[in-house]
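This part of the workshop introduces the protein records we will be handling. The structure tokens are whole numbers drawn from a learned vocabulary of backbone shapes. The record below serves as our worked example for the rest of this section.

===
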Amino acid sequence: MVDVIDQLTIAQPLCNAQPMVDKNAIRAAFSERLHEALNDAGVRSRGRGVDIHRQLKGFGVEKTTQAISKWLNGEAMAEADSIAALCSWLNVRREWLEYGVLPKEEVGKNTVRPRSASGESNISEINHRFGKVPLISWVQAGAWCEAISNVDAPDADTWLSCPVPISNQGYALKVCGDSMTNPGPGRSYPTGCIIFVDPDAETRTGDRVIARVPRTNEATFKVLVEDAGRQFLRPINPQYPIIEITEETHICGKVVGAFLPE
């Protein structure tokens, strides 16, 4: 076994770039996937907004035809409740419709049911489990360590639906740099990858974590490892140094999910 202490060197410069997400491209790609799913389901080309409105209403989701038209024209993204209902109706996976992550088809039982005769719906349960989180900068992530609060969250320009269960304190980050890019086989988080962080999740050795290292207001993304009773932050890319965890190091949260935009 290689002693990680022997590999310990000065920490790499942290990425301080603000998240750069092409919102128009994301909306356009969502619109293309929505039309593809509608085509597969045999939904007519003309009057699709009316058909979608009627189907959503059956799931207890009230959206205006104007809002739906914006989805179809690539001018806006559907909200979490609408996406959940659309996926159930069109029998596609949420990760595919929202992010383009394959496979496309939903296998097995639908996760959302139409409104029952009593008027009850399980849409709220889906919303609670798969909530939207703010896409923040690495500087903001460092500040999140000091006082975990959603007070500043509404200031985020972009909100993303997390594809896995996450707490109300969760947030998203855009990976920059290649320290977490695997040059060989195995899990990899290349530049541009979106990671979802849960500050409330318990962290263990081997987890991917976000940490704030001493003498900086920024956060870093690494693997939490232990050797000889001491803990370290290890990059997946072996070309980068390992960072020793000290009393001044703060673990900001555990990475619970990720996706790579097309």
Q: What stands out?
A: The two ends are 38 Å apart (CA to CA). The chain has two domains: 4-20+135-259, 23-129. Strands lie at 132-134, 159-161, 171-174, 194-198, 208-212, 220-227, 230-234, 243-244, 250-259.
